[in-house]
DNA sequence: TTGATTATGTAACTTTACTACATTTAGGCT
DNA sequence: AGCCTAAATGTAGTAAAGTTACATAATCAA
C-alpha cells in the first residue's frame, strides 16, 4: 500500500493535531513536498514535532523520508483514490473525481489481471467462423464497440442488443463460432439463456463478466476484470471501461497473431475510411 | 524531459568533478536519493559545493530539490508511457501495455482538462426538452453508451448511428433540444452536416470532439479531451475511453444538479432493473 | 612563463530537522 | 466535582544538513 492510501487509511486513528496534518497533505500533496517541516507545521497550526511524529506513525524514518516517499507516490501517478462525489462539489472537482476513480479502477484491474483467458480468447477468435457480441444495457454499448472493431476484420461479426436477434444467432450457432457475452454482474437472465443455447450448440462462449456468476457457467472462457465496486451508485462507470480495455487487449492479441499481412489489410481499411472525412491530418476512425 | 535524461544529456558539458557526480548518480540513482550531500560528495571524491553546483546546473533549486526530482523520476519507473506493442510480445506483456497506454492517455487527459464546457453542457442538459447522441464508427458506441445512461432520466433521449434517422431528428430539432455529436477527429462529413442542420434550427449542439475541427464550427459547446495520438495504429483505443469518461463527468454533474429527489428516482430505476437478474448481490446495470 | 579565467575546495553561516523535556489536555475513578 | 494518570502537544535546545562567500588550485591563451 502506498503512502497516500496509508494516510487516508490511518486518518481515523490519528490524534486531533496529527489529523490536521493528514488533511493538509491529502488535500494538497504537491505543496507538502516543497515545504520544510516548519512551514508545513505552521500551515497546519501545529508544532514541528507533531509533524515529525505524524511521519513516523506512517512508517517513515523522519520528515525528509516522508517527503521522499510522498514525492515518489505522486510521481507514480496513482493518487487516484476513489473519492466519492459530494453534494458540494463544483464541476471541476467532480470531473477530477470521475477521472480519478476511473483511473483508480483501471489501475487496480491492471494489477489483478489474468492473461490466460485473454490468450485463450485470442486462440478461439483466430479459428472463428463467425463472431457475435451480445449484451444489454450498459454492456450493449461495450458489445457495440467490440463489434465495431471487428468490422475491420475479415471474419463475419455481429452485434445485437435485441433479444430475438440474439436468440436466432444462438440457435444457428455451431462449433467454431464465437459468442462474446458481456455483463458486469453476469446475472442478466436473458443473456444467460442465450449463452446456454449457444453453449449447447458447441459454440465457444466467451464471457466478459464476473467469475462464478450464473453466466459464467455457460462460458468456455471467462475474462473478468475485478474492478472495485462502482463509484457511482446509480449506473456503471468504471466497470464498463475495464471491459472495454480488456476487449482492446484481446483485439490487440488477435491482430498480432494474425501476422503482418493481416495488419496490411487493416492499414488499407483505415486508408479507406478517409473518404468519409474532411481531409487535413489523417487520423484513426471516429 | 526528465531529470535522468537531462543528466546524461548534459554530461558532456560538465566539468571533471561534476561529471564524477553525474556518473555516480546515473550508475546508482537509488542510492543518491537516500544520502546526504556530504555523503554523496565523499562517495564521488568531490566537495559538497561541487555537488550543489551540479544540482543547480541541472536546473534544480538545490540539493534537496534535486533529490526530490530524482525520486519522482525513479518512481515513475515504468510509467504508463505509450509503449508500443511489438511482434515479440506475449499476451501478458501486450495486455499490460494496452492497460498502460490507456491509463497514460486518461491521466494526460485529466491533467489538461477544461471544466467550463462540461459545466455549460450540464446547464444545457438541465433545461433540455429532448436529447440525442449521434456518432459513427467507434464514436457510435460512445453515443450508445451515453444514451443508455440518459435512458434512466426523465428527459426523452435517443441514440442513432443511422444517417437518415439522425437527419430527421436534426430537421425536427428546436431550441432547447440538445444534440451530442461525438467524433474524435471532428472531420466526419456526415456528422458535420447533421450538426449544421441542428445548429441552424437553434438546437444546442454539443461536440465531444477536437477543438478547431470542422465539426466544432457548428457546436455551441465543445468538450474536448486532448488525448495523445492513439497508441494503436489501426483503430481508436484511448481516445474513445476519454470520451466516455468526459460524458460520465457530464452525467455526474447533471445528476448532482437535478438535486436529491431526482436521485431518488434514479435509485428506483436501479431497483427496477433487479427484476431482469438472477438475485444474490444487487448491483448496477450490466 | 605569466595573467586571466575557470574549476574546486575550505570554512563560516544559515537553515532544517530532531530530541529531551515541560506543559497542557482529556479521560477515568473516587 | 476534583484528583490522578496517561496521552497529546508544544517549547527550547542540539545536531545535522545545505548553502554562501571566499580562497586556492588548475587550466589555458598570449
UniProtKB/TrEMBL annotation, chains A, B:
User: Boundaries of each HTH rpiR-type domain copy?
Assistant: 1-77
Which example biological process does GO assign this protein? carbohydrate derivative metabolic process
Q: Name one GO molecular function term.
A: carbohydrate derivative binding
Keyword field: DNA-binding, Transcription, Transcription regulation
InterPro entries to which the protein is assigned, alphabetical: Homeodomain-like_sf (IPR009057), HTH_RpiR (IPR000281), RpiR-like (IPR047640), RpiR-like_SIS (IPR035472), SIS_dom (IPR001347), SIS_dom_sf (IPR046348), WH-like_DNA-bd_sf (IPR036388)
Domain SIS residues, every copy:
121-260
NCBIfam families given in the database record: PRK11302.1
Query: What protein name is recorded for this chain?
Result: Transcriptional regulator HexR
